[in-house]
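Hello again, I could really use a second opinion on something today. I owe you a coffee for this, so here goes:
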Amino acid sequence: EVQLVESGGGLVQAGGSLRLSCAASGLTFDDYAIGWFRQAPGKEREGVSYINTSGGSTYYADSVKGRFTISSDNAKNTVYLQMNSLKPEDTAVYYCAASWGFTAAQAMGLGSRGVDYWGKGTLVTVSS
């Protein structure tokens, strides 16, 4: 059974930082691009960032470029999202996603349509 388990969400003030983790099991980690989506109340789920776990290439949404950094520890089957300079508009439930056979850029372009597995999400709240 494939599982993606997110952790690290919480409440932070604007300008602060959080690091999200996504621990994957039940899949061949290197075969997947692993990424993060977020969904704010009343809004559609949107792609935030992806990493190609086999090659290390990354891709970011324009709204988070320069503030968020995605990385992976293949020995631990874990992907991280370091979020700095957080803004109130970053408030959302953040979901980990696994997309088989795509590069990071391809997976971002496909959005939810390209996701094979989802985590249950972790809430990030940024106060002003």
Summary: The first helix runs from residue 104 to 110. Residues 50 and 59 are 5 Å apart (CA to CA). The helical segments are 104-110.
